[in-house]
User: What shape does this take?
Amino acid sequence: MKDLQKLKTEVQEDIDQLDSNELKKKYLSSDGVIREYFSKISNVDKDNRAKYGKELNSIKNLIAQSIEQSSKEIVTQRAKRVDPTAPFDSNTSKSNRPRILDLNGSSHILMQELERMLDIFQSMGFDIVESRQIDDDYHMFESLNFPKGHPARDMYDTFWTEDGFVLPAHTSTMQNRILSSSTPPISAVIPGRCFRSEATDSSHEHTFFQCEGIYVDKGISVANMIATIKEFLEAYLETDIEVKIQPAYFPFTEPDAEFTINCPFCNKEGCSTCGHTGWIELMGCGMIHPNVLKSADIDSEEFSGFAWGFGLDRLVMIRNHISDIRDLRAGNIKFLRKY
Ligand SMILES: [Zn+2]
Assistant: This one.
């Protein structure tokens, strides 16, 4: 019994000093101290055996209780963890949390409109391919007929990484990939985020979305291009439009054009959306340059095609009467909730 007294003192000291794993291992494991003391029970004289067993059990319970207690404390500490990003005390029960956001949420207006556009293009038979947010010089310029040192490269002032990669300034970076990985007829639409080193104002942003389209087959002409773009725009803007084709210059198309439509809001009388001209320049387009087809191993004698690229933000702004492009990315809840 004296031994048990000594054991109890040792256990009490250990409870203060050891953690639960150490306590478990030292006392409660299969070769632990408690097991050892139980095996000594046959050496205890018969009169004291019951008392010895009872006392030893109570020491065992003391250790078990201490282990249980400390694991409960860990659980409580976890529950009270502080989350500095939460807009309220994250330990508050669900039913008592303040209602600070509309928890139903909704997708961003750009994504809602993009989905509408892609539905229209899909119904017209186009495949959808996503563009990249970082690319190389070959896909940004060379494969699109901008050789090194070509002055038109300056029209696409964007951001470069120190090791020579580029943040795409247009979604045309995907043209070569799509043309060289498929055989005509090819029809694809490529939405993607683009970047330009711009001074921002109500109509210019450093980051915006473009939507590229390409179509390649035998006997494709400018008339097919105009009809395709017009059909899409009438479906998207839900109104009939008039089209004006104005000359433009892009190294990767020949001939190139600026696709201009009558302002759908003022019947060509002039309003703030069209800059009081009655017409809106919507996108660059043109017949794909033979050199671009050649760089994708497509025979430009046999096949021809067209491509376009429009600023998705601009089209979304026109349809929704948004006057400042910066609103689209300002994260202003008041603005976003309108859509
Ligand atoms: Zn107008």
